[in-house]
Amino acid sequence: MREITLEGQRYRHFSSNDYLGLSQHPAVIAAWQQGAAESGAGAGASGHVTGYSRHHAQLEEQLADWLGYSRALLFISGFAANQAVIHLLAEKNDRIIADKLAHASLLDAASHSPATLRRFAHNQPASLAKLLATPCDGGTLVVTEGVFSMDGDSAPLAAIAAETQRTGSWLLVDDAHGIGVTGAGGRGSCWQQQVKPELLIVTFGKGFGVSGAALLCDAATADYVEQFSRHLIYSTAMPPAQCCALLAALQQIRQGDERRERLQANIAQFRAGAATLPWQLLASGSAIQPLIIGENHAALTLSQQLAQAGCWVSAIRPPTVPPGTARLRITLTAAHQPDDIDYLLEALHDAAH
């Protein structure tokens, strides 16, 4: 998504998670429209009653086949998927060891579960190994992300998986910002690093350009989640029309090397042009390019200056990020044109002087 209109004003849009521009793709829009014409606007019931359709089944089967898992289960959002899985699988004597910068949905679920929560230093397998070495009466679930939403950096999944497997623990990876964008055919961070976690959460509001999420796992785990997850049992199922749109988006992702190449070119163009800015640009190779401003007021002021220049860039402040690291969270997409990137860079350089 290149542009956004707010209160009648059009802006070049640099705060969208629509990394491949699929929310505006004609095939995705047409699939949703056709699905709505055939099946209505909503599912009408929980999937455990009458809300589960052939469209849901087809999407789950294609996701599982694409990512190399036995089963996929659909959830209405990534937040719901993370809450459901952690609440259900982590019990009183168990332990959750999560990356310190893991998403709020993961940490909230872990802190409200009966399991003990411990946090390892961000992207530090040695810190994880130290925590894993301490005894635990029950099982251990290690939790991390593929690409982190605020810093844009990638987890060293191969090293994290090795430490996890060494102790017989389970690994959960939330690849919200990697799926569709990284890895061969857009299969995501785990595929890229040749890691197969026991629990993989993929969400559809970023690279897929739609919304919703899925849990990928083995058949036994899927059966257990399906039978006992209150998030599934007591929620209306995803609209069948949304499943149709997601199937169309999946097809575009699988054929989307050109879009991923455009995104990478846009990232490289931005990073080259931003190298001389007076603010810290974090070392991110992803579509998320955080520019650390420092103080809250300064970040807000810069965001407002960019808006006046016609660029919409959100300022992110504590408690979402640590104190003193207020930032512009610049997100790039395959839909951006080179002149969009140049325009943003020129606005940033003007604001710096």
Topology of this structure?
Blueprint: E1 3-6, E2 9-13, H1 26-39, H2 54-67, E3 71-75, H3 78-89, E4 95-99, H4 104-112, E5 116-120, H5 125-132, E6 140-145, H6 157-166, E7 170-174, H7 189-192, E8 199-203, E9 213-217, H8 219-228, H9 230-233, H10 240-254, H11 257-274, E10 280-281, E11 288-294, H12 296-308, E12 311-312, E13 315-316, E14 326-331, H13 338-352
Parallel strand pairs: 2-12, 4-5, 4-6, 6-7, 7-8
Antiparallel strand pairs: 1-2, 3-9, 8-9, 10-11, 11-14, 13-14
Helix pairs in contact: 1-10, 2-10, 3-4, 5-6, 11-13
Describe the structure in your own words.
With 353 residues, the protein is of the alpha/beta class. It has 2 domains: 3-20 and 256-352, Aspartate Aminotransferase, domain 1 (Alpha-Beta Complex), CATH 3.90.1150; 25-254, 3-Layer(aba) Sandwich (Aspartate Aminotransferase, domain 2), CATH 3.40.640.10. It is 41% helix and 18% strand. It is built from 13 helices and 14 strands. It has helices spanning 26-39, 54-67, 78-89, 104-112, 125-132, 157-166, 189-192, 219-228, 230-233, 240-254, 257-274, 296-308, 338-352, and strands spanning 3-6, 9-13, 71-75, 95-99, 116-120, 140-145, 170-174, 199-203, 213-217, 280-281, 288-294, 311-312, 315-316, 326-331. Strands 3-9-8-7-6-4-5 form a 7-stranded mixed β-sheet, with helices on both faces. A 4-stranded antiparallel β-sheet has the order 10-11-14-13, with helices on one face. Strand 7, helix 7 (189-192) and strand 8 (199-203) form a beta-alpha-beta unit. Helix 1 (26-39) runs antiparallel to helix 10 and helix 11 runs parallel beside helix 13. The longest helix is centred in the C-terminal third of the chain and has 18 residues, at 257-274.
